[in-house]
Amino acid sequence: MPARKFYCDYCDKQFQDTPADRKRHVKGILHQQAKARWYDSFKQIPNPNPPLCFHLLNTGFCRHGESCKYLHPTKSPIETTPSPGNVLNLPPSLQPPPQGGYPHLPFLDWG
């Protein structure tokens, strides 16, 4: 009866299935590297701009705490009201006019 063959999914390699051969293969550096690459392929890349945590915004408490995958703002948006000199990232069309108004521009004839 021929010896059975073992196929390693990590290494895409086939060899004789004996306890000594399997142990030698599993302890080998190439198998360990292939296994590490396979597990690393499932790691998720963290989101640079995670959405806000709705539990924290709605209830003021998040049961996940620091391990929550959503963003926990330090201050609620209601508490952060802009003062006249402090405008929060508004586009130029929505920013208040400067003190003293806009500078006078000369009239140009278009045509």
From TrEMBL:
This is Zinc finger CCCH domain-containing protein 3. Residues 47-75 form the C3H1-type domain. Residues 75-103 are annotated as: Disordered. Pfam families: zf-CCCH (PF00642), zf-U1 (PF06220). A zinc finger (C3H1-type) spans 47-75. Residues 77-86 have a biased composition (Polar residues). GO terms for molecular function: zinc ion binding. Transmembrane segments: none annotated. The keyword Zinc applies. One of its GO terms (cellular component) is U12-type spliceosomal complex. Keywords: Metal-binding, Zinc, Zinc-finger. SMART domains: ZnF_C3H1. It comes from Cajanus cajan (Pigeon pea).
